[in-house]
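Good morning N.,

You mentioned wanting to compare the apo and holo forms, so I went ahead and generated the holo version with magnesium ion. This is what I fed in:
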Amino acid sequence: MTHEIAVIPGDGIGKEVTPAAVEVLESLDIDFEFIEAEAGDAVKEETGEALPQETYDLAASADATLFGAAGETAADVILPLREAVDSFVNVRPAKAYPGIDAVRPETDLLFLRENTEGVYSGHEDRLTDDVSTLTRVVTESASERLAEFACDFVADSDKHDSFTIVHKANVMRETDGLFRDTVKSVADEQGIETDEVLMDAFATRVCLDPEQFDVVVCPNLAGDVLSDLAAGLVGGLGLLPSANIGPERALFEPVHGTAPDIAGENVANPAAKIISAAMMLEYLGYEEESEAVNAAVEATLADGPRTPDLGGDASTEDVTAAVIDRL
Ligand code: ATP
Ligand code: MG
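and this is what came out, ligand included:
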């Protein structure tokens, strides 16, 4: 069976790390058809559109999408692309790697963030010059969809057996209250153990002792902020992957952006994008291959070669070749 993969490198180092990930995937014995499409600042300059219709359509029909990064036009590109795959959950692992400087090297967390509502889909208004408002939306159906994903994820995993619900339902009783109650009742029905922590307390506790948490399920804004906080604990954004999962397709992207300061120099670290590709392998059912790619990246991070961001002098291509060698 051939898997149709949309490849959207975008701008900046997206153009360097995305082909690196494709090269790693091509070295595996899996039947992929890669279809490349444009998005971002460069295509906007040429055509006036940051996300051409054909790119959107490709992401909406491919089995999975590999996205790199977009510059100034990021919001015009990634928000519609997430919508193209109907992504309802953003999966963000935050794991420290051996040999990489981290504030909390023992961190190994996995965030499941609601990806469609909360304040980000809310409606903002400017009532008068000096008064503005924001209405947020939380629905039972979106909370249920996330909870079902979290339960299936935990049930299918050898490594995880429960999850923590993070919220602020003591203050936002209606919105976070509905979120918390819905997620908890789905988990109870499915026999999955959960605990809950208020989001402010979570921020402190995860810094002091990240090992007390494992899988973390949160509303949109809390998930955005807290997963970035966790990125700080493991040594910054440079190595972190993410997945936007929908009911029928998914989009995989590194957490970092276009890094204009180093773009075009063949020194970008391809690790985050290659780990995102490993998440895609797992999503498509190739668990062994996914683990092998992760192990090859981990060994390369630990033993080199390394790109300059990690203190080495290797190029993007050297690191990619080393990962493929280890495979
Ligand atoms: P954008 O606006 O597209 O997010 P940015 O200037 O915020 O761009 P990021 O890509 O978010 O840049 O990264 C911040 C900094 O971290 C970069 O300037 C770069 O020096 C470093 N960095 C990020 N990703 C990588 C990578 N893959 N390899 C090496 N360095 C990186
Ligand atoms: Mg940035």
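Residues 12-13, 17, 69, 71, 238, 256-262, 268-269, 272, 307, 309 surround adenosine-5'-triphosphate (ligand 1) (CB under 6 Å).

Happy to go through it together on a call whenever suits you.

Best,
F.
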